[in-house]
Amino acid sequence: MKLLNRRLFNEDSYPERVLQFGTGVLLRGLPDYFIEKANRAGLFGGSIVVVKSTDTGGVDKFEQQDNLYTIHIKGIEKGSEVQDVLRISAISRVISAVRNWAAVLESARNPQLEIVISNTTEVGITLDEREDLFASPPVSFPGKLTAVLFERFRTFNGAEDRGLVILPTELIDKNGAVLQDIVLTLAERQQLGADFIKWIKNCNHFCNTLVDRIVPGSLGPAEQKQAEGQLGYRDELAIMAEPFCLWAIESSDPYVSEVLSFAQVDKGVVIAADIQKFKELKLRLLNGSHTFACGLAILAGFGTVKEAMADPVFSKYVRQLMHREIIPTLVGIGIGRGEASEFADRVIDRFSNPFLQHHWQSISTNYTSKMRMRNLPTIVRHRQQSAMAPTYMALGFAGYLYFMKATEGGELFNEWKDDLQECSDFWETTTQYLNRLQAEETVLGVIDQLNKKEEIR
After folding, report:
1. C-alpha span between 290 and 284 (Å, rounded)
2. Strand order of the sheet with strand 246-250?
3. What order of strands is seen across the sheet that includes strand 69-77?
4. Which residues are CB-neighbours of 299 under 8 A, at least 6 positions away?
5. Residue 247 — very low, low, confident or very high, per pLDDT cuts 50/70/90?
6. Partner of 108 for a Cys bridge, out of 148, 289, 360, 426, CB 3.0 to 4.6 A?
7. Tens digits of per-residue pLDDT, 5-53?
8. Rounded distance, CA 248 to CA 234, Å?
9. What Å distances lie between residue 169 and 20, 31, 113, 160, CA to CA?
10. Please, which residues have CB within 8 angstroms of residue 171's CB and are 6 or more apart in sequence?
11. For 49-165, where are the alpha helices, taking DSSP H only?
12. Interatomic CA distance for residues 109 and 114, integer angstroms
C-alpha cells in the first residue's frame, strides 16, 4: 500500500505564515488542525513551517510523507458516538534546528510570516543561564525565539509592521507574559540594543493561551490497519484526537484577531480580552472532578475513566458532583450557569469516550498537590456561599484520604484538617465518609446511598 504523499492528492499550497516550534501531537491535533480547517474554508490561506527543536527522531517521516498526516477524531458528542477523519496538509516543511539552524533564521526573514506557535513542554519556557543567542542553535526555546526575532528586526530595520503574534501553548499560567519576560531578559543580557527591546515590547504580541484537547497519539495496530483499508494509503504520522477542542487566546487587539483569521472556522478557537474563565472551567470541572473521583474509582475497582463512566451509579456521582456542587461555586465568581452546565456536559462526554484508555492510576500521580491546586479553592468557595457541606465533594475527598491511607492523627490527615479549619462542616462530613469507607462498605454502595439521599432532598 502506498505511503501518504502529495502525489496522491491535489493539495493547495499556501505562503508560509506560521513558524511552529514543536512537532508533538498536541500541536498537530489542535493548532494545525484549526489552520487546516480554515485553509479549506478559505479563511486563512497560510502554511506552517515547523521547527524540530530536539535532535531525537529526526524529520525523515515528515519528509517521506511530504509533511502530510491524518487526524482521526473519535469520541462522544452530546451522548452520541462520533468518528471523523481529516487529512492535514497545512505543514509546508519541517526543519531540524540542530542540523539546519540557518534555515530557521531564513524563515525569520520571510515578509509573509506573521505567527509563532510553540509547545515545548512547561520546562521549555524557562530562562537558561547558559544561553548564547548566536549559537547554532541557541539552547532553549526562548533563546531560539529571541534569535529569530532579532534576525527579523535586523532584516526589516525595526519596521513596526513586521512584528509577530506569538502563541505559546505550554501549560503554564500566563504563558505569553512569562515568555515575553524571558525574551526581554535575554535581549538585555546579550546587549542586543534598546531599539530591539523597544521593538519586542511595542511591535510583537505575546498572547496568553489555554489549550484543551486529548490527543493520545498514534493509532493502535488494529486501528491503523482498519484506517489503511478505509483510506487506501499508509500513514505513519496518523494521530487520534477526541472531538472536544479548545484554544483560548487572550487579546483585545483588533490586529491580533485580523491575523488569527483561522479563529473564525471553529467555535473551539476563542479570542477574548480575558481567558480566566476558561481556565476556571477546565481546572474546576474537568481536572477537579477527575481528582475528586479518582480515589473512589480506584477503590471501586475501575481501571480506566471510561469503565467508571459506564457504571450508572458512578457516572451519576460525577454528574451530580459537577452540577450540584462545583458549578454553583463558578457562578459565584461570575461564570454563567448555562456555559458552566454546557462545559460539564461535555466533560461527561469526554470521560465516557470509549476510544480513550485514561487510567485512574495515572490520574492519581501527585494526588495531594492536584487536590490542593484544583479542589481546595472550590471547597472554600462552597463554604463561603452555602451553609450546607458539599456531600459529593466530601465523599470524593474521603476517597482520596482512604486511597492515601490517611487516618486521624496521621500527618496528612492533620495537614488537611489545618487547611480546612474554616470548613469544619465539610471536614466533619468527610470524616464520616472516611469512617464508612474504612468500615469496608463498598464504594459504589456508599455512592448509591448518597445519590438516593440527594434525590429525596
Report:
1. 9
2. 209-212, 246-250, 269-272
3. 80-88, 69-77, 239-241
4. 399, 402, 403, 437, 443
5. very high
6. 148
7. 999 888 889 999 999 999 999 999 999 999 999 999 999 999 999 999 8
8. 34
9. 11, 9, 19, 25
10. 122, 211
11. 60-64, 101-108, 141-155
12. 11
Residue with cell string 496528612: 412
Residues 448-452: contacts with CB under 8 Å, at least 24 apart: 448/313, 450/317, 450/391, 450/392, 450/395, 451/313, 451/316, 451/317, 451/320
What lies within 8 Å, CB to CB, of 302 at 6+ separation is: 308, 311, 314, 360
> Would you say 422 and 383 are in contact if contact means Cβ atoms under 8 Å apart?
yes
Distance CA 49, CA 107 (A): 8
In whole angstroms, give the CA distance from residue 261 to residue 258: 5
Closest by CA position to 190, among listed 140, 128, 148, 134: 134
Q: Judging by DSSP bridges, how do beta strands 239-241 and 69-77 pair with one another? A: parallel
Write the Ramachandran bin of 23: left for phi over 0, alpha for psi from -120 to 50, otherwise beta.
Answer: alpha
From the list 371, 367, 457, 380, the residue with the least C-alpha distance to 426 is: 380
- Preceding amide of 137 cis, omega within 30: yes
Residue 373's Cα: distance from chain center in Å?
Answer: 17
**Location of C-alpha cell 474546576:** 284
Q: Are strands 246-250 and 205-206 parallel, antiparallel or unpaired?
A: unpaired
d(CA 84, CA 86): 7
Residue with grid cell 483561522, as numbered in its chain:
262
β-sheet bridge partners, residue 167: 117
Q: What is the dihedral of CA 311, 316, 317, 320, to 10 degrees?
A: 160
Under 8 Å CB-to-CB from 22, ≥6 apart: which residues? 50, 51, 52, 53, 117, 118, 119, 120
The alpha-carbon radius of gyration of the chain (Å, integer) is 24
pLDDT category of residue 107 using cuts at 50, 70 and 90:
very high
